[in-house]
Amino acid sequence: MATKHSRAAARLMISPAVLLLLAWMIIPLAMTLYFSFLSYNLMSPGMERWIGFTNYQYFLTDPAFFAALTNTILLVVGVLIVTVIGGTLFALLLDQPFFGQGIVRIMVIAPFFVMPTVSALVWKNMFMNPVNGLFAHLFKALGLQPFDFLAQAPLASIIGIVSWQWLPFATLILLTALQSLDQEQLEAAEMDGAPWLSRFIHIMLPHLARAITVVILIQTIFLLSIFAEILVTTNGGPGTASTNLTYLIYMQSLLQFDVGGGSAGGVVAIILANIVAIFLMRMIGKNLEA
Amino acid sequence: MGRITLDKVRKAFGPVEVIPPLDLTIEDGEFVVFVGPSGCGKSTLLRLIAGLEDVSGGEIRIDRVDATTLPPAKRGLAMVFQSYALYPHMSVRKNIAFPMKMAGVPKDEQDRRIEAAAKALNLTDYLDRRPGQLSGGQRQRVAIGRAIVREPSAFLFDEPLSNLDAALRVGMRLEISELHARLKTTMVYVTHDQVEAMTMADKIVVLRAGRIEQVGAPLELYQSPRNTFVAGFIGSPKMNLIEGPEAARHDAHTIGVRPEHIAVSTEGGQWQGRVGVSEHLGSDTFLHVHDTGLAEALTVRVGGEVALHQGDTVWLSPEADKIHRFDADGLRIG
Fold first, then answer.
1. Please, what's the b/e burial string for B92-115 (b: 16 or more CB within 10 A of its CB; e: otherwise)?
2. Which positions in chain A touch B113 (Cβ < 8 Å)?
3. Cβ of A202 under 8 Å from any chain B Cβ?
4. What is the pLDDT of residue A288?
5. ipTM (interface predicted TM)
6. Within a domain: residue A157?
7. Over the range A12-50, which residues count as b (16 or more CB within 10 Å of their CB) and which as e?
8. Which GO terms describe its cellular component (chain B) (predicted)?
């Protein structure tokens, strides 16, 4: 990447793309920041005025905010636990040679191709519905009272739905990692007298550490902004039992028409997400370097 | 302590029989080398002994105990792999400690054995490094260290030197031989390099297509190869194999003469030929002699500083008592 001249030319040529992308990001961010300091309600147009940090004050002291924050954390951590553990187990299973391996592997990946709204609707109406759902039929067949998942355990149900969607992703990445493990290492461990569980703990898990890191990192980014599943199934309810930050901001700005308050929430969410990102990178970045 | 007996051991992968029924006894304390071209089943045979592959038939006895169905860990053998198979996320110390940790050896005993192994293998300064930070030779020594601390009844080596450069290979060859002299434990060593086999072995097992062609001490194989395959495989450069009228003159289908058993003269001799390529090694020169009417080319060893050039005419005379004779099936006569 040679001379000063060619570097200058390179910069000049990529500048349109960089400027466009920058504008794409900066303008919405700047507008959100600006709106967050305004009293701006769509019900009373033309009445916008500068109110400083009042929006933030209202948003942060709203009891729904803490509920949403807790729910967001529970949702992210819950799905991560299910997908990482489940993904590892599935990967171990799919790594075994068996009849029809190719087809089974493709079918395991399938849920990832179903869009979130569709999968949430299928789960809500065909599985979890307390009258017509498959689970209701199962319960009735066993002589039990059908369980109304989305009313009794809304957050757990959403964790289940989202986990179902993300399990294939974790499985796929962990399976490829598992397949890249040197078989001679496992054989050496076998010769060294390690039973299967020891081989898993001492050889396979450390080998998987990097892949698990990648799974956690990527999933966290997407799970912080879960929205469609909540909108389609519980609408954040009952009460705020399944409202996460994204859904709270949506309620604020589009159901209560409070653009100012919603923008303040958005800025808070950006700050929180960045805090999470910094911690994740600190903790996990080390793992990626080694 | 480390006597391994293979009794009609057979191995097939599906319909393909890679090792037809085979008998072999490895005596306690012996250094046995399995040698053969690639794909001859020597690694498979080693893995059968290790227990990493199941036999398709026959019996493996270790110290007179039937070990045919024992899992690898229960056989009391230690193996050094071609890729070393060190655990990349563990330090050298933990790598060496791993088999003892699995066996539940007390901590202070572990430390004692690690120190002893590290001292013997010159690894003391590297105990806290990871395998990734070591050179090829050091990794090799860690793999050996991991095998030693288990105090196995026999060591199994699967082409352990093939990933090292030439100079290191010679050094490690010596170290492994010294290790054997010190420990006096049975060692089974797989290689495709006949130089390793000749220099290290007490007993060489030459394999071809899963079959044992000959078993014997290195010099025994060199002096009286049982057939043309062993004759061609053992010795470097290869033995010259000559067929046709010249062989018939010796009442044989094929005769073999080693390059070092042929005298070269510029005045006269038994076979006349023309010098082709000559390979100068310093101490020796290998001449490829063409147009003798006996074979495509004969290889001859002459002294290091010899004034023969491409195209020169030379006469070759084999040492009469060093001519090997083989019949039409390639088997040795006499």
1. bbbbbbbbbbbeebeeeebeebbe
2. none
3. yes
4. 64
5. 0.80
6. yes
7. eeeeeeeeeeeeeeeeeeeebeebbbbbbbeeeeeeeee
8. ATP-binding cassette (ABC) transporter complex, substrate-binding subunit-containing; maltose transport complex
CATH number (domain holding residue A202)? 1.10.3720.10
Q: In the numeric block, which tokens belong to residue B299?
A: 């290889």
Instruction: Name the residue among A213, A241, A242 with its Cα closest to residue A226.
Output: A242
Global confidence as pTM: 0.80
Is A194 in Cβ contact with B83 (below 8 Å)? no
Q: How many domains does chain A divide into?
A: 1
Domain count for chain B: 2
Q: Which residue has the tokens 């198979």?
A: B85
State both tokens at B61. Answer: 């006895």
- Domain match, B99 and B245 both: no
Asked if A87 and A215 count as a contact pair (C-beta separation under 8 A), the reply is yes
Please enumerate, as own/partner, the contacts of A52-58 that have beta carbons within 8 Å and a separation of 24 or more.
Answer: A55/A260, A55/A261, A55/A263, A55/A264, A56/A264, A56/A267, A56/A268, A58/A261, A58/A264
CATH of the domain at B186: 3.40.50.300
The rounded distance, in Å, linking the Cα atoms of A38 and A260 is: 6
**Beta carbons of A207 and B89 less than 8 Å apart:** yes
Which residue is closest to A186 within chain B, CA to CA? B85
Contact B50 A194 (CB under 8 A): no
CA-to-CA dists, residue A14 to A8, A10, A17, A24, angstroms = 10, 6, 6, 16
- Find residue B278's DSSP bridge partners: B287
Domain for residue B235, yes or no? no
Does any CB of chain A come closer than 8 Å to the CB of residue B21?
no
Residue A67: give the domain boundaries: 54-289
**Order of strands across the sheet that contains B57-62:** B16-26, B4-13, B57-62, B65-66
Percent of chain A with pLDDT over 90: 39
Residues A274/A280/A281/A283 CA torsion (nearest 10 deg): 150
User: Across the interface, do B98 and A192 touch by the CB < 8 Å criterion?
Assistant: yes
Which residue of chain A has the CA closest to B147? A192
* B99 to chain A: closest CA residue: A192
Interface of A with B in 180-199 (CB under 8 A): 182, 184-185, 187-194, 198
- B122 and B31 in a common domain: yes
pLDDT tier for residue A289 given thresholds of 50, 70 and 90: low
In a domain, B332, yes or no: no
Span A225-236, average pLDDT = 89
A182/B102 Cβ within 8 A: no
B153: containing domain:
4-230
Per the CB < 8 Å rule, is B85 touching A188? yes
Does the distance separating the beta carbons of B52 and A192 come in below 8 Å?
no
Tell me if B73 and A198 make a contact (CB, 8 A cut-off): no
Task: Quote the CA–CA distance of B20 and B42 in Å, as a whole number.
Answer: 12
Question: Minimal CA–CA distance to B72: which of A24, A225, A195?
Answer: A195
Interface touch A190/B87, C-beta < 8 Å: no
CA B301 to chain centroid, in Å, comes to 23
Answer whether B77 touches A (CB < 8 Å). yes
Same domain for B274 and B222: no
**Mean pLDDT over residues B299-318, rounded?**
86
| CA separation for the pair B207, B199 (Å, rounded) | 18
In a domain, A152, yes or no: yes
Min CA distance, B84 vs chain A (Å)? Answer: 8
